[in-house]
Design brief:
There is one protein chain. By secondary structure, the protein is α/β, with parallel strands linked by helices. The chain has one domain. It is 60% helix and 7% strand. The chain has a four-stranded mixed β-sheet, with helices on both faces. Strand 3 and strand 4 form a beta hairpin. Helix 3 packs antiparallel against helix 8.
Length: 291
């Protein structure tokens, strides 16, 4: 039995809290069935202020670095400390634009088997999420999928080093997680509404002026200059799931040997071929580092 909790920590959005709760109850069994992953015992969704989002996101980044630090020799501490300072400084430069306007939702791992999704009501409005029920359902299904991923990976414990490094460099795990969640949210909206819905297809001209201004900020443009995590991740995950099935693919969440390499992220057909070979023979080697 999963306890679905939606808290309005702003104390100003009771109707939105009820709306999120209703959609969460609706999509939870669909996400479970689509992913073939277990739901955690508790699912936490929080409506928070931009300031709280910024503070909690920075704390989550630091926790990843701390895990990384604990697994490295002491002589590497100065370099790791520098990485943390640089990463946090870059984050704080854009955080007001992200948490207050651009980021629709963010999910962080918590204690025990729980995760927490942070939603900023103003950002949901500026980004167009609240313009149609399909988009809110997409967002909630997407973020809920991260809860299931976190449970399957024991809050990414086997990936701690890679996740910490991913703060300052784009690793394959980000494409894996976001591509998987994107695939799920498209499947869920297809089940709910008869066709897949993607808020990314919204014309920017229909978005709020606040959103368009933040999106055009040079700092944001520079941050988005790299590969699109969602689309590239979907291009990675879709053929893999089609080839081996969602249930078989779930072995990737606990076996580092199955993680895509950076080359395989660029060329998904290579990862699909390796998955088919390894999963068909069950000759999966010991966990390896991801390069």
């Amino acid at each position: 039995m999963t306890n679905l909790l939606v808290l309005d920590e702003t104390k100003r959005h009771p109707e939105l809290r009820a709306q999120v709760e209703t959609v969460l109850e609706q999509v939870a069994p669909m996400v479970r069935e689509t992913t073939q992953l277990e739901l955690p015992s508790v699912v936490n969704f929080r409506l928070i202020t931009p300031e709280q989002w910024q503070a909690d996101s920075a704390a989550d980044m630091s926790s990843h670095v701390q895990r990384f630090r604990m697994r490295k020799p002491r002589w590497q501490a100065p370099v790791i400390n520098l990485i943390e300072r640089v990463a946090l400084a870059k984050f704080h430069q854009v955080a007001p634009l992200l948490g207050g306007v651009l980021v629709m939702g963010a999910t962080a791992a918590g204690p025990s088997d729980q995760s927490t999704t942070m939603l900023v009501p103003d950002a949901l409005r500026y980004s167009g999420v609240l313009s149609r029920p399909e988009y809110l359902a997409q967002l909630i299904a997407h973020e809920l999928t991260h809860h299931l991923q976190n449970l399957a990976t024991r809050h990414r414990e086997v990936w701690a080093d890679e996740k910490a490094s991913a703060i300052v460099r784009s690793g394959s795990i980000k494409f894996l997680e976001e591509g998987h969640a994107y695939w799920v949210d498209q499947e869920v909206t297809r089940l709910l509404f008869g066709a897949a819905h993607d808020i990314g297809d919204l014309s920017k001209s229909t978005l709020s002026g606040v959103y368009r201004k933040a999106d055009a900020d040079p700092r944001i443009v520079k941050m988005r200059s790299g590969p699109d995590l969602y689309k590239k991740g979907l291009a990675l995950m879709s053929p893999a799931i089609k080839a081996v099935g969602a249930a078989n693919l779930n072995r990737v969440w606990t076996d580092l040997a199955l993680l895509p390499t950076r080359r395989e992220v660029k060329h998904p057909v290579l990862w699909v071929a390796r998955l088919e070979r390894l999963l068909s023979t069950a000759k999966i080697g010991a966990p390896r580092s991801v390069g």
